[in-house]
Amino acid sequence: MLRVAITRAQPEAGRTAERVRARGADAIVAPLLTIVPCGYDTSTSGAQAIIFTSTNGVRAFPDARGARERLVLAVGDATANAAREAGFINVRSADGDANALVDLAKRELDPANGKLVHVSGDHVGGDVSGKLRAAGFSVDWRLAYASIAAMVLPDVLLGPLDVMLFHSTRAAETFAALGAPNVDKLTAGCLSESVAHAAAKSSWKRIITAPYPREDDLLTATLGG
Predict the structure, then answer these.
(1) Over the stretch 89-114, which tens digit does the pLDDT of each residue have?
(2) pLDDT digit string, tens, across residues 116-128
(3) Which residues neighbour 118 within 8 Å (Cβ) at sequence distance 6 or greater?
(4) Looking at the DSSP assignment, which residues form a beta bridge with residue 189?
(5) Residues spanned by CATH 3.40.50.10090 within the chain?
(6) CATH class for the domain made up of 36-147
(7) DSSP β-ladder status, 139-149 and 33-37
(8) Are 45 and 66 in contact (CB under 8 A)?
(9) Rg of the chain taking only CA atoms, in angstroms
(10) By the 8 A CB rule, do 42 and 65 touch?
(11) Which CATH number fits domain 3-32+151-223: 3.40.50.150, 3.40.50.300, 3.40.50.10090, 3.90.1300.10?
């Protein structure tokens, strides 16, 4: 049975593990990041839309009821579904990466109609806020959570493995910095090109990049089925 390590933070790691097991592989949960919520200004008054670049950002938004009718732009379907589950009723998914999200905002929104509130963590791939500002939008960036990198590798990553899944550049960078042994015998499964670039700092047997930045595509590319 293929042994697959999942490096993303909880609770998402547990959900990914279920999907890995459903594909007939052995899922080993080994988060390299811990999500810590931050206190921040949650007001969306005067905003034409809220931008979410992760499910963690949605989870860190304390109560959607006061903003439930506010337009939400989400980086992908998982984040969009999390927003709907949180109570937002007007949600659109970019179904892609940071660039796809910026493109969606440029198509659907007008800079003259008000600011955007970008709720995210301390590490955001793709400089979404910067690209939106370059397109003429006023963006309020709200730091909703911090991702704390592991200081040592989880013991389970030192045992027998076949595949390691990376959902973020932060996790891939953390793994490379901690210098695990026997990487040359393992396959790295990466959610996007930017994640694969970070993973390439280690000498893997093989690096597989999902054709689209969606977990289904990542699991199909690395596990088959």
Answers:
(1) 999 999 988 899 999 999 999 999 99
(2) 999 999 988 779 9
(3) 50, 51, 53, 128, 129, 132, 139, 140, 141, 142
(4) 165, 208
(5) 3-32+151-223, 36-147
(6) alpha beta
(7) antiparallel
(8) no
(9) 18
(10) no
(11) 3.40.50.10090
